[in-house]
User: Which sequence fits this backbone?
């Protein structure tokens, strides 16, 4: 009770002890009250944790005059515990999650679409913080939502957000953060009603493995993803997975297998360039050519120049990061055939773009291309 009464006065134990000493002087009270003594009285324990002995009469009188209660009342246990606000906060969050309906989900998806547009045109340096804030917002809603369709849809949305954040973090050179985002994306995907989301997030995580030189592991991960996709995923996603597998195989120096994977990707590519029910992927004939050209450039194949040049001509100008990567590939392709002036043109342009969007990943590739 003593500490509770002191809190009511909006004083700390130190402030109250100082006030008590001043009160004693002004009112001719013989009692004294230091901070350590006050702490023992408040805790009910003496030195070394021993039970508290009798309070000196002068000290008891001083406390009684200041606080207006008997010493027995002041040393009694507090009559009530501090209010627990966590239950009220939990109810508030559950009620908020219950209000997630089709309109709210539609708004959240529109916000994700807007972030994607900012990301592809201005880069992760602009959009990464925003998508991380959105993952926190949607993550809180999912954590406090109850089983049902809205929870599954929130889980799918959170998976998409973390997948985007994972790709952005990789581009910014934040490799560990990227891996963690993909892990969170997979966890959220498992709660969605569509298995394609988990397949997609696992496949994208393979690019983190490629960036740290774990090419064999990336190849195996994507092969597993393609097998899982056979009966559960759309043709669009299966085409994307084949192309991603082709890139990993190229990194692992398996030329023939890589090119076969790209041929399969072309065969699977549907006329529709999007799947409203599944995970978001960007894939059409231009992007497939860009990926194939990247693989050909790895093998110093002269055909890479024509494939990449054609892809560059057809690429949507808003895909700034994709253009940056394509120009680095094209520089490498020109280097393989000894076209030094063309290499310089592409590297200079790629460097300007990489600086504009803050792409650490592409800057590293550019430095590697400049190396003798």
Assistant:
């Amino acid at each position: 009770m003593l500490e509770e009464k002191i809190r009511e006065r909006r004083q700390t134990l130190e402030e109250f002890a100082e006030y008590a000493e001043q009160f004693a002087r002004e009112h001719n009270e013989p009692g004294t009250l230091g901070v350590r003594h006050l702490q023992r009285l408040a805790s009910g324990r003496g030195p070394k944790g021993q039970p508290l002995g009798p309070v000196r009469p002068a000290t008891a009188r001083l406390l009684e005059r200041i606080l207006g209660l008997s010493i027995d009342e002041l040393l009694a246990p507090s009559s009530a515990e501090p209010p627990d606000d966590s239950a009220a906060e939990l109810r508030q969050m559950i009620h908020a999650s219950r209000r997630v309906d089709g309109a709210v989900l539609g708004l959240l998806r529109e916000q994700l679409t807007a972030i994607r547009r900012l990301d592809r045109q201005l880069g992760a340096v602009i959009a990464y913080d925003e998508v991380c804030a959105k993952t926190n917002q949607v993550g809180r809603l999912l954590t406090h939502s109850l089983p049902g369709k809205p929870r599954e849809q929130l889980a799918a949305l959170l998976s998409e957000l973390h997948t985007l954040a994972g790709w952005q973090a990789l581009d910014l050179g934040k490799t560990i953060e990227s891996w963690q985002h993909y892990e969170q994306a997979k966890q959220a995907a498992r709660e969605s009603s569509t298995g394609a989301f988990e397949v997609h997030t696992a496949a994208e995580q393979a690019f983190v493995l490629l960036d740290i030189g774990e090419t064999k592991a990336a190849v195996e991960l994507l092969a597993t993803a393609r097998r899982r996709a056979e009966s559960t995923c759309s043709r669009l996603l299966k085409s994307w997975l084949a192309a991603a597998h082709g890139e990993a195989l190229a990194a692992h120096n398996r030329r023939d297998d890589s090119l076969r994977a790209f041929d399969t990707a072309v065969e699977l590519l549907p006329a529709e360039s999007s799947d409203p029910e599944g995970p978001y992927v960007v894939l059409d004939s231009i992007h497939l050519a860009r990926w194939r050209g990247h693989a050909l450039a790895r093998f110093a194949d002269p055909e890479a120049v024509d494939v990449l040049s054609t892809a560059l001509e057809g690429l949507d100008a808003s895909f700034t990061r994709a253009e940056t990567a394509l120009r680095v590939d094209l520089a490498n392709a020109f280097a393989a055939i000894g076209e030094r002036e063309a290499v310089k043109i592409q590297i200079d342009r790629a460097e300007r773009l990489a600086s504009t969007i803050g792409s650490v990943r592409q800057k590293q590739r550019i430095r590697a291309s400049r190396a003798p």
